[in-house]
Predict the structure.
Amino acid sequence: MTTHSSVIRHITPGGIADYLLRRRLFLVGGGADNDLVLHGRGAAPLMMKIEPCDGGYRCSSAAKEALVVNGKRVKSALLRHGDAIVIGSEHFIFETKAAPRPPRSDNGHELLERFRRFIDAVGREQRLEPLLQKLMRILLELTGGSDIFLFKLDREGRPQVFESNGSGSAEERFSDTIVGKVLERKEGVCIPNALADPAYQNAHSISDLRLRSILCAPILTAGKCIGLVYIGSNDPTVSFSKDDLDVVSIYAAIAGMLIHHVDFITEQQSAIDRLTGVVSDDGLIATSPPMQQVLAAVHAIAAVDITVLLEGETGTGKSRIAELIHTRSPRTSAPFVVVNCSALHGELLESELFGHKKGSFTGAVSDHDGLFLAAQGGTLLLDEIGELETGLQAKLLRTLETGFIRPIGSSREVSVDIRVICATNRDLKAMVDEGGFRADLYYRINQFSITVPPLRERGEDVVLLAYLLLNKYKTEYPGKEIVDFHPETIYYIRTHRWPGNIRELANAIHRAVLMSHGPLIRFESQEQAGPAAPVDFESACRQFQKEFLEKAILAAGGNKEQAAHLIGLSRSTFYRYLAQFKI
């Protein structure tokens, strides 16, 4: 296709690049969505606008930088052939001579860059409409068309306009003859000059609309036509070519996959939101059988004023279970106090628990009530109870049996009314057998025991927890455009053993969000290296398809037939793709 449009020539130390002006607004700046993206330091997101005006073009500054045309500072100017334009440190020349578009073979970088931007838009966008608008803009830029339509087929297979550019009645801007032909043959059509083509001389839609050049390609998914891409132009300087149809056909094929991809992400997030809303018990994710047993035990003993021992690995959320017991008990309006028995030792821990009188030891400059009194009427969680020294074990046992405490340096006992919950990541029974923990205290704090399962035994809870934590940390960094986990990260989350349990998972997600530079986050510690960046257009397509299939399998919990159903493929087609990509 050859266009006789005006050209803006960008002059840089590395060379000269020409950009065609196709009778529409042309934007220049550092933002990725501009028609001409500036990569120099200090480039504002939008610096200059060039727009059609009185049969020519007018340029104007869109930033603080002054616009200089032919050596004169101006706010805006009508452009003439040969005008020199300077804004900031960027130099341009405006020319109106004919500018043939380079052959496709010389324009691969532009195609790949636009494709990268399209894929990036998919990664950032969970709504379908903005994605399709992005697709239409890219296709119009690549082809020089004036009208574009995306059709979807209704239940009877009839085409319905789904999205289009411009305003006014869509039916008055496309040829139903061409649309019908593409639907019938399920293959694309390119008409360089419809008015002069004998095959379409009797087509009223073409003659009535005075259509000059037309492109139309089917959107196919698993061999089934689900819609159409249609581009038209009545500009006599525009003549679509077979190369243009190839590009539109490629984008139509990718659009079919990406539309399903966006729908899948939307459905996945909606399902996760519904699921977390249903299974979250005061903020606790508990869909797995082991956690369901924990919740059942919590509900059974919350209202019964007995001492509870919580056992489990570090980071499993024992303190969260203790808090849930407290909130479900009649003591919920009183304090919930936590003390880590491993953080302090000897006299300091004794003082922290039971309090002290002024002058009872060096540094005791005033009376101190202690945490037993601070929790009066409520619940005291003694975390890491296995770290408690032998002397304090005896004092704690007496308090639990009598309901009284004696502050250090005091001759009087004080009555306390609290519920004690103990937590440990150690095997207290083994410690009793080895003489490291008092047997009488062990049986006193173990009136009822609950074992909190490690994350690796909680099945799909780990993925739900991951999304709950992702949504939490996303709100802490509103400037980051994070959409989802990378498919390989989901696999890593499912298969990693998480020795640090929920605490390790939370730290990994927080760090990944903090260090993220794109819409899909990955972990620094992820064992698998990500796929290499595609070096050409076809590689990019194959890479996207492979990742899409892998994500479908992960979403279906490894069930391939269910994964095929999720993305609308037959079982045989799905397995053929798996073999093709060696999944």
User: Anything to note?
Assistant: The domain at 105-260 is CATH 3.30.450.40 (Beta-Lactamase). The longest strand covers residues 224-233. Residues 242-279 form the longest helix (38 residues). Residues 98-106, 527-536 have pLDDT under 50 and may be disordered.
